[in-house]
């Protein structure tokens, strides 16, 4: 059976990472600073499920001069996320079709909570969710695509995948997946190709 795989960030929900950096500044009273290498390392660790949400917040409090709880983290991300209309139109159409519908996203549990707090039932109607923090690996590591295909029990040619990052698309294609970079200049073409792939 054909399967539609959706990235979440900048596909189903838009986000601006600069807003997170601004929140650090606003809540700490410090000047705006770029994401450091250590910040990125810790962010990735949460998305791989190697670091708990509570430990991540403790790191942020120490590194950024904050006094946050996990609730603060959820609320900040609720403010950061907004809906991508094109991505959600495809998402809704796929869920109403005969296709299997999954997410495949580099994501942490607090991101999921923020999305569901913003839009109750957001993931209802999907067949399942492939999320990096549960899988212990992030895109574009080839292992995550191998795990997905094994779980689905299909070849890559039976999967249609959209992601905003070129490197994630490239690695998916190496696994035989029909993958497309979901950026504004490609939106119309991707909608046409999805319709052709699924026979809509």
TrEMBL record:
Q: Which Gene3D superfamilies match?
A: HAD superfamily/HAD-like, Putative phosphatase, domain 2
* Protein name (record): HAD family phosphatase
Q: Which organism is it from?
A: Pontiella agarivorans
SUPFAM superfamilies from the UniProt entry: HAD-like
Q: What does the organism's lineage look like at the top?
A: Bacteria, Pseudomonadati, Kiritimatiellota, Kiritimatiellia, Kiritimatiellales
Matching entries from Pfam families are given as: Hydrolase (PF00702)
Q: Which domain of life is it from?
A: Bacteria
Which InterPro entries does this chain map to?
A: HAD-like_sf, HAD-SF_hydro_IA, HAD_sf, PGP-like_dom2
